## 1
Amino acid sequence: MRGLDLYRFRLPSPQTRFRLTLFLILTLIATYVTIAWNLRSRILEGNNDFIASYTAARMVWDGKGVQLFDLREQTVYQEAILRSLHTEFRFRDALLAYIHAPFEILWFLPLGGLGYFQAYLVWLAVSLGCVVTGVYLLLHSLGSVTRGLLAKCILGSLAFFPVFINLLQGQDSATLFLFWTLGYWNVVRSKEAMAGVWWSLLLQKFQIVLPTLLVLVMLKRWRVLTGFLAGSVALLVVSLAVVGRSGLESYARLIIEASSWIERKGIYPSQMHNLRAQFYVWFYQDHPGVANVLTGLASVVLLALLLRSWKGEWDPGSARFGLKFSLLVTVSLLVSPHLNLHDLSCLLLPGLLIGQISDQDAGTGSAFRRLRWGTWLVGYPLMLASLVVSGWVPIHLSVWGMIVIVLLLIQTLKQDCGAPKWKAESAAITRER
C-alpha cells in the first residue's frame, strides 16, 4: 500500500511539468490577447495612458518643447488629438498630464509625426522589443542558454500580467526593465562605468533610483557612480536642449504641484502597488498623517534590511549577487512613492534571476525551492488576484506578495550552508564530473 501511495503522488516528470507550464503560459497570453481585442475601442478613442506621451511628442514635434510642462498647452493639444479621433471620451480632469522627465520624450518624439493609432502600434512594438531584449541579455549574462529556455522565459514574461497592462496602456515600464537589465549585464561583464550610465536612464522615474544609489555609496562602487553621474549630466544637457531652462523650471514646479494631486489627474494612490498604497487605503481618509508616517517608517525599515543584506563581497558573476540584485529591485519598487501596476513589469528581473538559481547544491535546495515557489505564486496567481481582492477588502495582495519575496530573499541570503549557483553553472560542473 505504501509503495502504491508513493506511485500515485509522485511528482510529474520534467517533460510533463514543462508542457503544463507552457500550456498555462499560452492560455494566459491568449486570454490577454482576447481582452485587448475586446478593449480595442478604448485604444482607438484615446482612453489609455499612451495619449499623455503622444500629446507631449506632438508638442515637441511642433517646436513647443519650452511649453512641454504647461498644463494648459497640454490640454489644448490633447483636446485636439481627441477631436481628431472623433470620440466623445474625455478624462475626468480634462487632461491626462505628461509629467515624466524631460529627456524621456526622446523615446516618443519620432512618433509625433504619426497618427495616434499608428504611433501606438509602433510603441507597442518597441515595448515588446524591450521585453524580449531584456530577457535575452539577462539570461545570457548567467551563462549558456538553450533556445527552449529562452523561448519559455520570453513567453513567461509576456504572460506576466503587469507586462500585459504596460503594453495595453502604452506605458514606458518596458524601457525601465531594459535599462535595469542593461546595467546588470554590464556589471556582470565588469563594465561598471557603463552600468552606471545605463542605470542613470532610470531617472525617467527618479523615485525608484534612491535604493540603488544607497547600495552603491555604501559599497564604494565609485566607477558605477561615476558612470551614473556622467549619464545624469548628459541627460540634463539633453533636457536643456529639448525644453530649455524655463522648461526645466516648469518641470520642477509641476513635480511639486503633482505631489499634492490625490485621486485626480492620473495620480491615484489607492490604485498603486507600493507601501504607500497599502497604508493609504487603511488610514489616509481619516488619518492622512498616520498613513504618511507609517509609509515612511516601513520604507526606512526595508531600506535598512536591504543595505544590511548587501554588506560583504561584491561578486557580480555569482548567483548570490543575483539574489542581492533581486532584493534591490523588489525593495526599490515597494518604497517608491509612485508606482502603478504596469511598473511591476520590472519584477521580471528578480523573477528571471531567481528562476535560474540552481536548487541542487547541498544544504540549500529547500530554501531556494521555497523562494522559487513563492516567486511563482506572487508573479502569477497573486498578481491577478490582487485586482479582484482589492475591490472587496482594503488589502493589496501584490504589495504583501512582494514583501514575502523580500523576506524570503533575506532569509536565503542569511544562510551559510553553501554558495548558490546558476543552473547553467551547475550543469557545467555536472558535465565535467
## 2
Amino acid sequence: MGKKGPVQGAEKLFYKIREVSEMTGLEAYVLRYWESEFPFLHPRKTKGGQRVYDRKDIDTVLTIKRMLYEEGFTIDGARKRLQQGGEPGNHPEVVLKIKQELQGILNVLNASGRGAAR
C-alpha cells in the first residue's frame, strides 16, 4: 500500500512510528535516523520499546522534512537553524522585511496597471 497524506479525523494523543510514516510520507528508518541527527526529536517509548509520537513530534518531523526536501537545507544546517530558535521565517525582522518587499511589488503592479486598459 502506498503512502498517504495527513490522517483526517479524530486526533489521537500518540501515534506509532508506522502511523507517522504514513502521515508524513517518510519511511520508518528515516524517522529513526532523524532521531539520531536531531536531538530535540525524541519520541517517547512504551514499556515494550515502541516509539510513540505526539503532535509536537509530528510537527517537528514535518518541519525537518520541509527544510530538507523543499528548502534545500542540509541535515547539519537544518539542525543548527532549529536549535537557534526555530524554523526560517519565524523571526519578526524577516517577516517585516518580506512584508515590505511584497508591498513594494504591489505598489509597482498598481502603478503599472493605472495606464493599462481594463
## 3
Amino acid sequence: MADTRARVGVDPGKTLLLAWLVPGAGHWLLHRRGRALLYGASVIGVFIAGLLMGGLQTVSVYGHKWAFALQIFDGPMAIAAAVAHHLVAVGSQAAGVAADSLLRRLASTEPSQLTDLGMTFTLVSAAFNVLVIADAFYLADKPEDETA
C-alpha cells in the first residue's frame, strides 16, 4: 500500500548530500537549527581534536586503508586532511614552499600513543556522522505527522 501522506518538502537526496558535505547541514536544511549546530559542532570538534592529537597521519590512506574508508564519512574535511598528508608524504613542490612548510608542521613524524588516540577520535567522529547523516535522511524522507 502506497503512503499518501505529505512529505516534509525537502529532497532526501539533497539532504543526504548536504549532511555529508558539512556535518549538520542536512538538519539545517530541515530547519532543525539546534540539532544542526549540536551535531555539526560535535562531529567537527571531535575530528579536529583527533587531528590536533595525532597530526595529519591520523587520516591517511597509506597505512590505514580500512580506517580511511570510515573516515570518508567525515566528508570533505577528511579528504582535505588525507590530501594534505599525501602532500607532506611525497614532499610535493606543487603546493609551494610556504604551504609545504605549514603542512610539515601539522604532520607528526613519529607514530605514538597520542597518534592512535587521535585516529580513534577521527573514527568516532566519522561513525557519529554516519548516524547524523542517517537521521537527516530519515527526517527528510518521513511523512509529516497528520496530528501536527
